[in-house]
Design brief:
five-stranded parallel beta sheet, 10 helices, about 20% strand, about 35% helix, alpha/beta
């Protein structure tokens, strides 16, 4: 079968993971990731990841579909620093070049997050920038990206959109931020996308319903690619009539999107 195969060495592969991290049920990898991605990942033995424990669990699942090039215990796994998780790594200040020493020595390397595509709504962009600065090829492998799946299912503007990340936790600051994003959306037509830690899903939904105009469209997607995955997209006025119809649970990641 055709598909990506790890290069002899010196390449950074962006390896997507299924969207079932932290969920009660896991999807078969073959249902979430193409054959070529799984085969390429199985051939990589050096990794930079968000969490080593999660990375090993994912590699164990890959091994069941494609034998790993090295035993799980022999995989070289390096975690990104915790400060990168908390503050993000897109604004500079973190030198990721030392993490890529194996690639400079000729090994294919994989960048991995806990769910979805690394460096998209997840840490890792510093590693990608470092690879480019060092002259290393960067190859993104095919897999699920929750933000784009949610946008496609929302009915909002797929020609113009922005990812706002996490909104402020303080209720007052969050309301101000929501209204500013909505004003920009109504002025430009640009869809606004945001996420939240699962246990705050319900609180974010209530904040959105309280701050947004009745005519604004709000979409909430949860459990995408999972058997119980769902999206509700409706005007805020309709949400307010029956919020229970789309309220996300506090265990599964959700993606929120709104706009005209």
């Amino acid at each position: 079968m055709s598909g990506p195969t790890p290069a002899p060495g010196g390449t950074l592969y962006l390896v997507p993971a299924p969207l079932d991290f932290g969920c009660a049920a896991q999807v078969p990898l073959a249902d979430a990731l193409p054959e070529g991605t799984l085969r390429a990942a199985a051939g990589i033995t050096h990794w930079v990841c968000e969490n080593a424990k999660s990375a090993r669990a994912y590699l164990k699942r890959i091994d069941e579909a494609h034998p790993l090039a090295a035993p799980l215990q022999a995989q070289q796994i390096t975690e990104l620093p915790r400060a990168v998780h908390k503050k993000g790594d897109h604004g500079g200040g973190f030198d990721a070049r030392p993490l890529l020493a194996p690639a400079l020595a000729g090994h294919a390397m994989g960048l991995l997050s806990e769910a979805g595509m690394p460096a998209v709504a997840d840490p890792g962009s510093s590693v990608v920038r470092a690879a480019h600065d060092l002259g290393l090829p960067v190859v993104p492998l095919v897999g699920p990206v929750s933000l784009l799946l949610a946008l496609a299912a929302s009915g909002l503007n797929g020609q113009g959109f922005a990812f706002a990340g996490y909104l402020p936790q303080d209720a007052g600051e969050r309301a101000v931020r929501i209204r500013a994003l909505e004003a920009h959306a109504l002025q430009t037509g640009q869809a606004q996308i945001c996420i939240e830690t699962p246990y705050r899903n319900a609180a974010l939904l209530q904040a959105l319903l309280a701050a947004l105009h009745p005519g604004t469209r709000l979409s909430v997607s949860q459990g995408l690619t999972l058997p119980a995955g769902r999206t509700r997209s409706a005007r805020v006025a309709d949400w307010r009539k029956s919020p229970q119809d789309g309220t996300p649970d506090g265990h599964t990641p959700a993606v929120f999107a709104f706009g005209p």
